[in-house]
Predict the structure.
Amino acid sequence: MTADVIGLVGSPRKKANTDLLVQKILEGVETTGLRVQKFYLHDLQILPCRYCGYCRNHPSCCIQDDMEILYAAVEGCRGLVVGTPTFYGDITAQTKLFIDRCYRYVEVVLHPDGRVTFPSRLTSRRLGMMVGVTGSFGPETFTKQIEVIKLLFNDLNAELVDQLLYTGTDFLPVKDNPEILTLAWNKGVTLGQRIIQEFSRER
Ligand SMILES: Cc1cc2nc3c(=O)[nH]c(=O)nc-3n(C[C@H](O)[C@H](O)[C@H](O)COP(=O)(O)O)c2cc1C
């Protein structure tokens, strides 16, 4: 059985800042009775998108690797939390590998008037949350990451309902900051409650 809410950790480091924040959010979600599951992207074999075009003519990807696990988890979930540290001003390579392979979920539609739209192929809706972490300071360092997560969430038919952006892990790691851990937990509770509220109405 797949989880109601999944958490994806884009840091290669277990129990570091991104992992702790995603973990706390999932713990908050769990208190609402929803099932959660965390995935370490670094532990999975995710090959890069080849842009072979297969998914333009099929509803799936032709590469056989651990993305099969994540595809099932994404399709079965009602909420997802994507956490990535900043590496050179951007998301990590692990996160990017996952995102590119989600191209199978988007349709590229060219309209007669020249407009191009990108509807998701997923008919089921989900709520999404982003966790961003940087070593130094400056909220502007998240601009690029937020944009790419928004593109991902569009393709996954996920609404970005919340974000948790933490700067300065070099100076105050998350493990030494009880306030941010409590905030993460509270955000998880809110996410869980919102999922229960929204999706019980849809049934
Ligand atoms: C290759 C690499 C590039 C990084 N680039 C940046 C950066 O551009 N800006 C920044 O603030 N921190 C940067 N950092 C620091 C990480 O964002 C920071 O240590 C973060 O806490 C790592 O996430 P984690 O603790 O969850 O592993 C970089 C770290 C590495 C290893």
